[in-house]
Amino acid sequence: MFWFWLLAAVVVIFGFVVFRGAPYVPSRKKELIAAFDELYPLSEKDVLVDIGSGDGIVLREAAKRHARAIGYELNPLLVIISRFLSRRQPLVETYLADFWFVSLPPETTVVYVFGESRDITKMVNKVADEAQRLKKPLAFISYGFAVPNLMPVKKTGAYYLYQLSPLQIDEA
Ligand SMILES: C[S@@+](CC[C@H](N)C(=O)[O-])C[C@H]1O[C@@H](n2cnc3c(N)ncnc32)[C@H](O)[C@@H]1O
Predict the structure, then answer these.
(1) In the predicted structure, residue 46 carries a pLDDT above the cut 90
(2) Does residue 11 lie within any of the structural domains?
(3) What digits encode the pLDDT tens for the residues 73-116?
(4) How far is CA 51 from CA 20, 66, 97, in A?
(5) What is the rounded (10 degree) CA torsion for 35, 28, 79, 8?
(6) Does 170 reside within a domain?
(7) Range of 64's domain?
(8) pLDDT of residue 1 exceeding 70
(9) Ligand 1: does its nearest atom lie under 6 Å from the Cβ of 78?
(10) Distance CA 164, CA 131 (A)
(11) What's the domain count of the chain?
(12) Nearest CA to ligand 1 atom 26
């Protein structure tokens, strides 16, 4: 009976997330490496934020390139797994949070998203609002989904790279 309730709890936790964003599917490591080598070469100057960070695979790849890597994840089990798998990488931080309510850290340089077609426009708008609030451009990497009506600056495999700049409304 214990195992039944445990399994039911896991199913409910993973199932609940689909009402707030994409279900858990990890990025493919080989493609991720190609993206961080060719599409957006990460360095120690970068602070990468993965919105919906899953088991933290993206964060760990970013940290291997000496970037600080911050993940926000809604599923508490994935947060525990991510923290465990990243325990030897001090550059990685994972927080239990709904990314729709998160304010990006001011040091953020690049936002990584493996979302879904339903939410991609809303996600890019959210990050564009953050670029406006922080008054700095943000790189936006989308895995698997092009943003409608927005021209990528580069494409590698299934990855699209966009540059989101704050509007120049405060210049006058
Ligand atoms: C397709 S997976 C990508 C995981 C990871 N970014 C990767 O590329 O391996 C999407 C993740 O976003 C999480 N998620 C969905 N909606 C969310 C929300 N509103 N806030 C935080 N995380 C969310 C899911 O639990 C899932 O782990």
Answers:
(1) yes
(2) yes
(3) 999 999 999 999 999 999 999 999 999 999 999 999 999 999 99
(4) 12, 19, 9
(5) 150
(6) no
(7) 2-164
(8) yes
(9) yes
(10) 7
(11) 1
(12) 24
